[in-house]
Amino acid sequence: MGVTVLQQFPVPENKTGTYVIEMLSKRILALGATQQGQFLVDCESYLSHPQMGTTKTVHILHNSEQPASVFSILESGNKNIHVIADGLFDLFMIKLSQHYTSKKQTKIESKGPRFELGDFCIKLGSVTMNQSFKGILIEVEYRPCVTANAVWGLLREFLQGLLGSSTVIQPPQHLKNRMSEIYTPIDTVHQYLELFSAYRKTTALRVQ
Amino acid sequence: MANSVNISIEAPIENQIQEITYDGQEIYLAPLSMSENLARLAQKIDFSKTEDDFIGPAIKKEGEGSSDTKSEDETKDAGYQSSMWPWDSVRTKLRSALTEVCVLSDVLSIAKEKRYMVLDPIPAEQIDNRPMVQVYGRKKALAAAAAVLLAGVERLKASETMRTARNMPDFHIDLLRLRQNWRLKKVSNTIVGDLSYRTAGSKFTQTGVFEVTKASEDSIAHQMSLSAGAGGGAGAAPSALRVTVPPELQGVAFITVLCQKEQEDVVTATLNSSALNCPSTLPGEGAELHWQQKLEAAQNVLFCKELFARLAAEAVQLDASIPHMVVANQIMATVLPGIQLLIGLCHNNGQNNQNNGDGVKSEAQSGAGIGKPEHDHVLEHSLHQLLRAVHHSNTHHPFPHPATGPLGPSKRRCLAGPMAADRYELLDMSKEQSLLEQIIQQAQHFFMRRRAEIVLDTIASKEVKDPLIVSHWNALNSPTQSCVKINIMSQGYDAVCRTSLVVHVGEKTLKCICRDGKVRHMSYELQELRDLIYCQIYQHQMVAVQAVARCMGWQLLASSSHLGSGPVEPLGNASSCLLASPSGDRMIAVRCEPSVGIQVFIAQSPRKDFFVSELVQDKKWEHLGGSFKEIKLERMEGKNFLNKMELLMACLSSPT
């Protein structure tokens, strides 16, 4: 498990998402990467029943990189509580459907090809919510390292090389105050959740 | 039609003939329509029949009921013309039923009024209460029952007395004993037991059902006489039980494991491997075994069969670089290049004695020439152990396991979800080593260990005498890893210098950790270990010479463990050192080449052969030191190299 940085890639005007994904794939393959299947990160949100007091939101996320795990993040006030459980947690949420109702129309996912290049693992995901295209997320993982501080420079350089020097690369909000801590898979999930929440607020882009 | 004679060809009659006219014409009945058919069938129903059975003939006689049945009989005879209307009988029956119900309701209403009619309970028919008859009847019945019981008791008593008189074993006690050790159940009239390892976690499909019967008295008596003849204790104890084991589990079975040099080709390998043949006679085979031994043997047969079936399946599934072979009751696998592992199942159930006998004979002949290879008890034992471990893990799931979660996955797999294990870790978890792989690894390790032992022992005992090589094998090791510590030292100088290194013997590789912390990985080719030990020996000698020099007060001027000069060595590099005596006037140079050995040179500094010449005129130049002269070490006095060097240094230090 290494350090992962999730980066949003702006889709240029009059270009479709598939075009951008193809363009980026070509760039990565030109660097000498090999494609290693597909990946999928999805997120579903549940709202607590109003009778239970203040409404809370539970986000259930799956990451194909950790196929046996279900990540759940409970938003309560300004604090996020996360629980990592195994696959049975999905069934558990069905049992809780009396208290937490799923917002089906906000189910959002990012999927696309997955590349490996030496110690790097690059994933190009096109984000869709209800079949409507929302944007492009690029995940870059550097596997041999576990603290973001030590590898941030390297990741920034790699991302700039990949996405073009014009893009400004900032450490993700979630990582900013955890730069010196040991990176865990839940940090990746937090980054996805941040960006997914941002996408949910925006209106849909053009259909690809 | 009357003029000509027609030959008519017609289909067989489908319809009933109503009448035949005098001119021979047949008038058919029109086929029944659906409703007519239904009416006909309804007519045939005898509505009163079930009623009549209950109500009795009294009502039947009443009115139309009986006449109707009669008319029905008539209709059956006369066909359908007689019935005026097809539903007539049904109607009449319904009507009679209605009449009856009306009458009943009238009676009930009258009875309810209690003015004209009162219903009195009819006293039940008086039982014939003549007491004596009853007493006699009961007495007779009791006597009959008692007779049955008494007869049974008599029989039991007779057999019991006979048993005690002849000191025969009790069937029920034996059954109790059997029940304590084996699973039994009663199926109708027979007692059936199960000797399979199902309850212990086995998933083998073959059943291990046996039947328990009572032995006949003759056979018990025979057994008793046999055991008495054997002097008691030696023969099987007589038992009133007889267990019948299915024929495929009879006899004796065992798994043999054999490691042998690989044969030239497969055919000869299979032919020559008759060493795996079973012995034709087994101890105690002729005698009737006690049921406990018999069942244990059968269980062992079942176990061996399961083990072999599993290994054979794995051998076929595994794709090794050199494919494993399964031929008849043998599995062949290549352990290391040139060495084969043979796993065989021997099952002797007394039926194929003839064949085996021949095989053993031929094997005995060939074995006399070649010398029968020893089969490997340790590997056989570990095979059994491995399958037992599989059984155990099938039934024992690691705690704590969730109440709702699936049973079976390992503890690591259970934790994989909450610990967010990634796909590589999960893939790693799903890999499971098969029994065959494990046993091959154990065999590989066995060979590696033995080869390493041989290499170390030959070097230590035959090839190198001078530094002593002591190897300590760890007594406790795992089946696939062991460890040896090697000390190199010279006799009498072990306090001055000793070189130690540790070799980890794995399955196909060796790992050597030297004293300086360097780790060297070696393959299964033992020449590499030999070379390493030789390098270590020469390195030891060089270090030891320097240590002795230090003790003697000599000064180390220079030393190099990797000399660049001289011819290229086939293994390692030449090393050398230069030592100066305490007074500084003598020098010793030691050069060590692994391929040549150790050479020692000396030089002295007021050189004796210094003569003033035209070029070098000053006398002081004699202190420069002269050319080195080689010393013939083998002609020097001393027990070993270090001792010789010590003597040499002592000799050179003396002021003469």
Describe the structure.
Chain A is 28% helix and 38% strand. Chain A has helices spanning 17-30, 88-95, 148-163, 173-176, 185-201, and strands at 3-9, 34-48, 57-63, 69-76, 79-86, 100-102, 108-117, 120-129, 132-142. By secondary structure, chain A is α+β, with helices and mostly antiparallel strands. Chain A has two domains: 3-39 and 109-201, TATA-Binding Protein (2-Layer Sandwich), CATH 3.30.310; 41-106. Chain A is globular and about 55 Å long. Chain A is built from five helices and nine strands; from the N terminus they run E-H-E-E-E-E-H-E-E-E-E-H-H-H. Chain B is of the alpha+beta class. Chain B has four domains: 20-113, no CATH class; 168-395, no CATH class; 438-539; 554-611 and 619-653, no CATH class. Chain B is 42% helix and 18% strand. Chain B contains 17 helices and 20 strands. Chain B has helices at 34-44, 47-55, 57-61, 64-78, 88-113, 131-165, 171-181, 217-229, 266-272, 291-317, 353-370, 377-395, 411-416, 423-430, 435-463, 527-552, 641-653, and strands at residues 17-20, 26-28, 183-187, 190-194, 209-214, 241-244, 252-261, 325-327, 330-336, 339-348, 467-473, 482-490, 498-505, 510-513, 519-522, 555-560, 575-580, 586-593, 597-604, 629-631. Chain B has a five-stranded antiparallel β-sheet, with helices on one face. The longest helix of chain B is centred in the N-terminal third of the chain and has 35 residues, at 131-165. The radius of gyration of chain B is 52 Å and the shape is elongated. Chain B starts with 16 loop residues before the first strand and ends with a helix. Residues 54-81, 231-235, 267-275 and 352-372 of chain B have low confidence and may be disordered. At the A-B interface, strand 4 and strand 5 of A face helix 13 of B.
